[in-house]
Amino acid sequence: MALFSSNIDALIYLVIIGVGLYLLNKLISATFGKSKKISLKQKMIVNFSLKIATVLIVVFFVIEGFPIISLIDPTYTAVFTGAISTAIAFASSGIFANFFSGIIMMLIRPFEIGDLVKIDGDKGIIREISLTKMKLETFDNLIIEKSNAQVISSKIVNYTIKLGKKKTFEDFKKKILAPQDIGFKGIYEDISTSKDEFEDNLKKAYESFPTKIYPKLYNFTFRMSFPYRGFRVIIDEVSKLCKSYQEKNIFRIKPQFDIVDYNISIVVKFRLLTFNAQKIFDFQPKFANDVFNIIHTYKIS
Fold it and tell me: What are the tens digits of pLDDT across the range 69-81?
């Protein structure tokens, strides 16, 4: 027997219940979202559970609430119910794929909100993570939304180093050093920051935080091509530029650069180290543009 005496009553109650569930979802999501005591993982699970419960309640009232459904032959009702279930399954297959991808991402934790990453060629800061999707703000100030299923199948580069507990300077240095930092042989020592100066910068950064727990360090790299002619003059000016960025305290550690390839041009890899991801976001494009201007000002035709 149907829950309501007429189809009109059932429709009115269904609309009221639907609107009520929608507002309840919004209210609970907003309340949980503002709470700092609840972890992101718990918030995502609650939001997803609410959505599943809402769908099940609506389907229940559609099947059990309308008198017209009870007039249908039980055989056809079973077929009808099966068809609805199949339709819901197909409609939500993408949601479930994203949901399980979200669970996997929680376990492997490839990034967190505020991390500086590159996903499928898109570089930027993670601004939002939900159980089914994430939002990335690029250096062009574009918000890119990616499903978790899409993210989990993409190549992810995270420029964030989790330093953890502050033990010794040697532990701190090991986490930060790149392969090209070890040795500073040949041309690297000639064109780049000297080993002693770089170590000095690292020590100042290490000692600048009095707490035992270090924040995250953002290690952002990018490459630029330099001409062979006039390279010495250009690279000297780039060295001065790096020093000026350090003196202005834009980046905590002086920007580093190394030659990584010789081809039709000289490829130089730059590395920016900072404890504030927003500084990379705000100043990396300007820094790259300053280097570009130096190249075109001092190159020999």
Answer: 666 666 666 666 6
167 and 255 both lie in a single domain: yes
pTM: 0.59
Q: HSE-up of 102 (CA within 13 Å, CB side)?
A: 23
More confident residue, 64 or 71: 64
Count the neighbouring beta carbons within 10 Å of the beta carbon of residue 261.
11
Of 237, 244, 213, the C-alpha closest to 291 is 237
3 C-beta neighbours (distance < 10 Å), count = 15
Give me the chain's average pLDDT, please.
77
Instruction: State the residue range of the domain holding 149.
Output: 110-157
Q: What are the angstrom distances between the C-alpha of 172 and each of 67, 106, 110?
A: 70, 27, 21
How far is 285 from 282, CA to CA, in rounded Å?
Answer: 7
The total of structural domains in the chain comes to: 3
- pLDDT of 97 strictly over 50: yes
Quick: pLDDT tens for 229-251: 889 899 999 989 988 988 888 88
CB 156 within 8 A of CB 111: yes
Rounded CA-CA distance 292/241 in Å is 11
In a domain, 98, yes or no: no
Residues 140, 37, single domain; the answer is no
Same domain, 217 and 293: yes
Q: Which of 119, 136, 157 is the endpoint of a domain?
A: 157
